[in-house]
């Protein structure tokens, strides 16, 4: 069977990462959370008060950021490190979520991230989730999925995740953040979030998680 690339794109909080992780596990493929990379860069910029309007400043800051992924055997998950520090938990908080779409609309940030993503997918056998994976990063991916879900359902799921991390945020605020990110991500001039013409759309609002994963596995196997 040949190795393929599975690209999963979609709106914020649709369950892309959880789905992508589960698909990668079944296929014994590498999983890459491209959103985590934009989040790690955002965290660095926040900590260093990087001025986003200064191209040179952003460029310089990007040179100081080294992003790596390491598999945590105990937790069975891939975790992201920024300059050697495990930032997996911190990047998921509201501070980064509020700011990340402003950072990810910058073309020099995108170029740097896309280069790393393409290198990681070089040998195929990868499941990558994000906003532009099927349209820009891997336009030739053998399988492209576009995930959607009702906004209130997405906000409830996200609120629960934040609560599990100890952040108690009202449903309205979480919903506003998702909507605002979707708006910026879909409206930006570089690599906007959109469904690739050859992507299979999956609405996860009322889908059983196992069903969702098996549907993607089935589609992947048809393309191997
Ligand atoms: O996937 P996640 O919600 O963690 O992504 C956080 C943010 O990173 C998105 O709202 C978007 O601004 C940005 N992103 C992106 N392109 C990707 C993945 C994420 O612009 N491929």
Characterise the protein shown here.
Its main location: cytoplasm. Residues 6-221 form the Cytidylate kinase domain. One of its GO terms (cellular component) is cytosol. The chain is an alpha/beta fold. The protein has one domain: P-loop containing nucleotide triphosphate hydrolases (Rossmann fold). It is built from nine helices and eight strands. The protein has helices at residues 16-27, 34-47, 55-63, 94-104, 107-120, 133-137, 151-164, 171-187, 209-222, and strands spanning 5-10, 30-33, 67-72, 77-82, 85-86, 126-130, 143-148, 200-203. The chain has a five-stranded parallel sheet with strand order 2-6-1-7-8. It has a three-stranded antiparallel sheet with strand order 3-4-5, covered by helices on one side. Helix 2 crosses helix 4 (94-104), helix 2 packs across helix 5 (107-120) and helix 7 packs across helix 8. The model has no long low-confidence stretch (mean pLDDT 96). Bound molecules: cytidine-5'-monophosphate. Residues 12, 34-35, 38-39, 100-101, 104, 130-133, 181, 185 line the site of cytidine-5'-monophosphate (C5P). Cytidine-5'-monophosphate binds next to helix 2, helix 4 and helix 8.
